[in-house]
Specification:
Layout (H helix, E strand, L loop, with lengths): L4 E9 L6 H10 L5 E2 L12 E2 L15 H4 L2 H17 L11 E6 L5 H11 L10 H5 L3 H10 L5 E2 L7 H14 L5 E8 L4 H9 L9 H4 L15 E9 H6 L6 E10 L10 H14 L8 E3 L6 H15 L4 E3 L2 H4 L6 H15 L1 E2 L15 E2 L5 E2 L4 E8 L3 E9 L4
Parallel strand pairs: 4-5, 4-6, 9-10, 9-14, 10-12
Antiparallel strand pairs: 1-7, 1-8, 2-3, 6-7, 8-15, 11-13, 14-15
Family: Belongs to the thiolase-like superfamily. Beta-ketoacyl-ACP synthases family.
Pfam families: ketoacyl-synt, Ketoacyl-synt_C
Keywords: Acyltransferase, Fatty acid biosynthesis, Fatty acid metabolism, Lipid biosynthesis, Lipid metabolism, Transferase
C-alpha cells in the first residue's frame, strides 16, 4: 500500500517577491525581477545583471545575531520554510514531529563564505573564521530549517546542481508515498550572486552579457545568449492525504509523479535523452498519459545547449499541445533553489488555472516545435502539470502535479 501525497503549504523568496501574494502577482503580470547587480561591483566580470532578492524581510523571522550564524542561503531556506509551515497549519499538536522530515537542496551552499574565507586565508590560516564550515556547507539549509521548525524525521540535502530543488521535492514525495514520513518540508535555497559565483559562471561562458534586464533572459528565443543568475528559496509542505485530511488541512494540489535520471553523457552539456526519460517516468508514476499534461514549467535557461535538447524532449514526450513557459525569465536561474521556486510557480498555476508567460521572448528559435506561452499568460484548464530541471553532471528531475479536485 502506498500513500497519496498532497501539498498544504508553500513559501518563497525570490527576485519577484518574498511572499506568495507578491510572487504570484508578478508572475501573472510577467514582471521581471532582473536588474543591475548591486551585491558587489561586477564590472570586471563583464556581467551586469542578475535576479537579486530585493527587500528581504529579515526582521520577520530573524534577529541580528542570526546573520552571523547563518549564510544568506540558509536564511532564505528558513524564511520560505516558516512561511510554508504557517500556511500549512502544521503544529506539534496535530503532527508527530518525529515523522516530519526536511530535505532542502542547494547546488553550492554558502559560496560567499568560501570567497571571504579564501581571501582571509591569504593573511594566514588563523584568519579563517571558525564559523566558515557550518556557514558554508550545503546541508545547512536543511540543518537550520530543522533547528527552527523542530522537524526530527527524515533529514538530508540534495546537491545535484540545478536539478537539486526538484530532486529534493521528488525525494520527499517518495518518503511519504512509501510510509517513511507523514509530512515533509522540501525545496531548495541558494545565494550565489557574489564575485566568485558570477566570475565562475561567466568564465564558463554560461551567463548572458546583455545589459537590458528585459532582454537578458529570453528562453527559447532565437536571440538568447545565456542565463541570468538568480537567488532565493522555494519550499513546499508535503503530506500524506490521510494525514492532511485527519487534521482538516487546506489542500492546494497533489504531487503524483517523479522522474530522476542521468544523461551519463557530458559534464555540462545535456543530451536530452535523460530529460525525456525523466518526463516519461514522472508521467508513468502519475498513472496518466502524455495527453493529460496541460502545462510544463520548463527548465528553460535561455541557453542554446539546454533549450535545443529540452524542446526536443518535450516534443517527443507530450507533443505541441501543452502550454510551456520558463519562469526563469522573471526570477532568474537560482541554481539549487530554482526547482523549489518553480514548483511553487507550478502549484500556483494549478490553483489559479493560469499558464504564466514566457516573459521577454518574442521570436522562437527555429525548430522549437512546442507551445511556448508568448505575449501574455493564458487562463486555461490545467489538470496536470510538469515542473522540470536539469543540472550540470547530467542530472534530470521532473515533478508531476495534479490540480486538487477534492477527491
Amino acid at each position: 500500500m502506498t500513500n497519496r501525497v498532497v501539498i498544504t503549504g508553500y513559501g518563497v523568496v525570490s527576485a519577484i517577491g518574498s511572499n506568495p501574494e507578491e510572487f504570484w502577482g508578478n508572475l501573472k503580470a510577467g514582471k521581471t525581477g532582473i536588474g543591475p547587480i548591486s551585491h558587489f561591483d561586477a564590472t570586471a566580470t563583464g556581467i551586469s545583471v542578475a535576479a537579486e532578492v530585493k527587500d528581504f524581510p529579515f526582521d520577520k523571522y530573524f534577529e541580528k545575531k542570526d546573520a552571523r550564524r547563518m549564510d544568506l542561503f540558509s536564511q532564505y531556506a528558513v524564511h520560505a520554510s516558516l512561511d510554508a509551515m504557517a500556511m500549512s497549519g502544521i503544529t506539534e499538536e496535530n503532527t508527530d514531529y518525529d515523522r516530519l522530515g526536511c530535505i532542502i537542496a542547494s547546488g553550492i551552499g554558502g559560496l560567499e563564505q568560501s570567497q571571504k574565507n579564501s581571501q582571509a586565508l591569504l593573511k594566514g590560516p588563523r584568519k579563517v573564521s571558525p564559523m566558515y564550515v557550518p556557514l558554508a556547507i550545503a546541508n545547512m539549509g536543511t540543518g537550520n530549517v530543522s533547528l527552527r521548525t523542530g522537524a526530527r524525521g527524515v533529514s538530508r540535502a540534495e546537491v545535484t546542481a540545478c536539478a537539486a530543488g526538484s530532486n529534493a521535492i521528488g525525494s520527499a514525495f517518495r518518503e511519504i508515498k512509501h510510509g517513511y514520513a507523514d509530512a515533509m518540508i522540501a525545496g531548495g535555497a541558494e545565494a550565489a550572486i557574489c564575485e566568485l559565483g558570477i566570475a565562475g559562471f561567466a568564465n564558463l561562458t554560461a551567463l548572458t552579457k546583455e545589459t537590458d534586464p528585459e532582454k537578458a533572459c529570453i528562453p527559447f528565443d532565437k536571440n538568447r545568449s545565456g542565463f541570468v543568475m538568480g537567488e532565493g528559496a522555494g519550499v513546499l509542505i508535503l503530506e500524506s492525504l490521510e494525514h492532511a485530511q485527519a487534521r482538516g488541512a487546506n489542500i492546494l494540489a497533489e504531487i503524483v509523479g517523479y522522474g530522476s535520471t542521468n544523461d551519463a553523457y557530458h559534464m555540462t552539456t545535456p543530451s536530452g535523452i535523460g530529460a525525456e526519460k525523466a518526463m516519461k517516468l514522472a508521467i508513468e508514476e502519475a498513472g496518466i498519459t502524455a495527453e493529460d499534461i496541460n502545462y510544463i514549467n520548463a527548465h528553460g535557461t535561455s541557453t542554446h545547449a539546454n533549450e535545443e535538447t529540452e524542446a526536443l524532449a518535450i516534443h517527443n514526450v507530450v507533443g505541441d499541445k501543452p502550454y510551456v513557459s520558463s519562469t526563469k525569465a522573471l526570477h532568474g536561474h537560482a541554481l539549487g533553489a530554482t526547482g523549489g521556486i518553480e514548483a511553487v510557480a507550478t502549484v500556483q498555476a494549478l490553483m489559479h488555472q493560469y499558464a504564466p508567460v514566457n516573459a521577454g521572448t518574442t521570436e522562437l528559435d527555429e525548430g522549437m516545435t512546442i507551445n511556448v506561452v508568448l505575449g501574455e499568460g493564458r487562463e486555461t484548464e490545467i489538470n496536470y502539470a510538469l515542473s522540470q530541471d536539469f543540472g550540470f553532471g547530467g542530472h534530470n528531475a521532473v515533478l508531476a502535479f495534479k490540480k486538487w479536485d477534492g477527491k
